[in-house]
């Protein structure tokens, strides 16, 4: 059965938009709390929680990762770049698995897959250190057999196929079927090479159906659309709750 990994980075993005400069330990209410969001996602059926600790700490903070490790009851999937500083934290926190991703300070979100061929030696070192600690390593790559082959050669047991190009092809039937074909091919190639196959990026309530029709995946990692949908289905209730409070406290 395909698992659902819920990426909660965007709950931290929203928190940081308001509370970036609040000192740790401040008594004011800092919201939303990504840990609370993770626990709610688990209640909804999330099989794992994904959080990306970026080098610029633009959303998730070190304390979030530690708190998630202690409080969630599913699996913790830490996304990280091949950065020695983040590696140290990963080895200390020991998430259930790590997904190695490329990171570029100017990007809004992760833009492309990691180039395992170009960065082979460096990435192999990260796979080795994390694996030695018992952390299963996944590598986020474009759906290309040559990248998959190299991921296998450097000892990664898992890959996450980048589905962003498929998502971006929505509305263009020929580009979409080209991307679906690439993903199906890559998923088959990876499975034939004994790798666990995950997928993620840009998957939403509309495009997930056609994606699942062309290949089977161990896990789909999905974030932005869940947080967006949560806003859409939650604003009415949240507004009504506050309206009730205001009415109840009228002088
Ligand atoms: N997988 C990886 C490796 C990612 O970097 C991201 C984005 O943070 C996702 C999955 C989730 O993408 P989205 O937020 O578009 O669902």
Layout of strands and helices, then pairs:
Layout: E1 3-7, H1 9-19, H2 34-43, E2 48-52, H3 62-71, E3 75-80, H4 84-93, E4 97-100, H5 120-132, E5 136-141, H6 145-153, E6 158-162, H7 164-168, H8 173-192, E7 196-200, H9 208-214, E8 219-222, H10 224-248
Parallel strand pairs: 1-2, 1-8, 2-3, 3-4, 4-5, 5-6, 6-7, 7-8
Helix pairs in contact: 2-3, 6-8
The site of pyridoxine-5'-phosphate has 19 residues, from β8 and α10.
Core attributes:
single chain; 251 residues; alpha/beta; TIM Barrel; eight-stranded parallel barrel; 48% helix; binds pyridoxine-5'-phosphate
Report on this structure:
This protein is of the alpha/beta class and 251 residues long. The protein has a single domain, classed as TIM Barrel. The chain contains ten helices and eight strands. It has helices spanning 9-19, 34-43, 62-71, 84-93, 120-132, 145-153, 164-168, 173-192, 208-214, 224-248; strands spanning 3-7, 48-52, 75-80, 97-100, 136-141, 158-162, 196-200, 219-222. It has an eight-stranded parallel barrel with strand order 1-2-3-4-5-6-7-8, surrounded by seven helices. α2 (34-43) packs parallel to α3 (62-71) and α6 (145-153) runs parallel beside α8 (173-192). The model has no long low-confidence stretch (mean pLDDT 96). The structure holds pyridoxine-5'-phosphate (PXP). Pyridoxine-5'-phosphate binds next to β8 and α10.
